[in-house]
Design a protein that fits this description.
Blueprint (H helix, E strand, L loop, with lengths): L3 E7 L15 H5 L7 H17 L3 E5 L7 H6 L9 H8 L10 E4 L9 E5 L6 H4 L2 H11 L6 E4 L14 E4 L8 E6 L12 H10 L7 E5 L2 H6 L8 E4 L2 E5 L6 H11 L4 E5 L6 H7 L5 E4 L5 E6 L1 H4 L1 H12 L4 E7 L2 H5 L8 E6 L12 H14 L12 H17 L7
Parallel strand pairs: 1-2, 4-5, 7-8, 10-11, 13-14
Antiparallel strand pairs: 1-15, 3-4, 6-7, 9-10, 12-13
Helix pairs in contact: 2-14, 14-15
Length: 417
């Protein structure tokens, strides 16, 4: 079995809007009320996927969920036509686009039964995300239906918040080698909620059959949460034998680094000093919400948002890093400004799954011709712009349902309609 890392990107849905629903996500709340551009947002995401393919990376997709979420509104005793403004905004959120929150993944080399395990995230902390898991689970069960190679788990029960891969990292000498799995949890962050509960992380590790000797549970720093690092992937990312992190990402970084080096002596920790890049600049630029990937050449590359170039302190540090002799040798920039304005960078848009592509439902894998067909649907059916007033428009709801149905039909995924 040829294990490789497949990046599954969420296609930005036709109701992408700036309702400012995510407390603690400074980009989302500061841009609340702006006009969004769903068509441009989806096309930006498709362009990022094309760039990944050009780098020789395997690429998959997850599909937008039905919006408005009528079933969720029904359960609350209301309907889109008469729901209050707040509930309607939550029912229309396009947040499933951020696939890093879809699930936590443990590849086959790490698990007791030798299968890749996936646990769908419950996302209970935020109302607009708490009703995602059913739609996400339906897609996971289709994409990874081969039970000889995959085990797909339902959500961790409330009240233990689980935010998926955005608070999980894996280090390994190769994708096919046993790894070190790192679960990062929050405790408190001042005015902002800590979204990942340690009990949820421990439950996922047990469900996946992980080796306790190669599993770490690490507290996120309160300073990072308070500064707007609502998920660990806003201040740290790992791949291969490289951990790329901000100095203030973890509550006890020295203890964490010592534990990590004990398990994996050859780990390379690239720590960005706070004296060079503040937490504010790290979060503003989404320096760490990058895709840290291994290219077919074997070199490590960072796929960064263009905001990293636009933040002087960040760009100077990156140039110094590349000029040095560290493990990260290449930088690629992508424009995902619509997603960034709602609080999600390149890493938020993707879920990494280490698997043999031949074991994945091919309808969830893409190449350039398939992306051409998706882009054509988006260009013809996605709204060009959405203002806050548009959220109460039945015409928008009808357009969103129709646009999604067209995409699912083209991809032969009518089961999800």
């Amino acid at each position: 079995m040829a294990l490789t890392e497949i990046n599954f990107d969420g296609i930005v849905g036709p109701t992408h809007n700036y309702a400012g629903l995510s407390l603690g996500n400074l980009a989302a709340t500061s841009n609340a009320g702006r006009t969004s551009h769903p068509r441009a947002a989806a096309l930006q995401g498709i362009a990022k996927m094309r760039a990944n393919l050009a780098l020789g990376l395997a690429q998959g997709i997850f599909l937008p969920h039905r919006r408005p979420d009528d079933a969720w509104l029904d359960a609350l005793g209301t309907h889109a036509q008469d729901a209050d403004t707040g509930l309607l905004a939550n029912a229309l959120s396009a947040s499933p686009m951020w696939a890093a929150n879809a699930a936590t993944i443990s590849p086959a080399p790490d698990t007791a039964d030798g299968r890749c395990h996936l646990t769908v995230a419950n996302l209970v902390t935020m109302p607009h995300r708490s009703h995602e898991w059913q739609g996400t689970l339906a897609q996971l069960r289709l994409a990874f239906a081969d039970t000889g190679h995959f085990a797909v788990h339902g959500p961790i029960p409330a009240p233990f918040g689980d935010e998926g891969a955005a608070n999980h990292m894996r280090l390994a000498t190769s994708h096919a080698a046993p790894g070190v799995e790192i679960f990062v949890y929050g405790e408190k962050g001042g005015a902002f909620p800590a979204r990942q509960h340690v009990e949820a992380s421990r439950a996922v590790a047990r469900l996946h059959g992980l080796d306790p000797a190669r599993t770490l549970f690490v507290a996120q720093s309160q300073d990072a949460i308070a500064a707007g690092a609502f998920h660990n992937d806003v201040v740290a990312v790992a791949n291969g034998h490289v951990l790329f992190t901000h100095e203030q990402a973890f509550a006890d970084r020295h203890g964490f680094y010592a534990d990590l080096r004990r398990i994996m002596p050859d780990v390379e920790i690239v720590e960005v000093p706070a004296a060079r890049i503040s937490l504010a600049d790290a979060i503003r630029s989404y320096l760490f919400n990058a895709q840290l990937v291994t290219l077919p050449t074997g070199e490590s590359a960072l796929i960064l948002p263009t905001e990293a170039r636009d933040t002087p302190a960040v760009w100077r540090w990156l140039q110094d890093m590349i000029a040095g002799n560290g493990p990260i040798r290449r930088i690629e920039l992508v424009d995902v400004r619509e997603s960034m304005s709602n609080g999600g960078g390149p890493a938020c848009l993707r879920l990494r799954v280490v698997a043999d592509p031949a074991t994945v439902d091919p309808r969830f894998l893409v190449d350039n011709p398939r992306l051409d067909a998706i882009a054509d649907i988006v260009s013809r059916h996605w709204p060009e712009a959405i203002t806050p007033a548009d959220l109460s428009s039945p015409a928008l709801w009808e357009q969103a349902v129709h646009a999604r149905a067209e995409l699912l039909a083209m991809l032969d995924l009518r089961e999800l309609i």
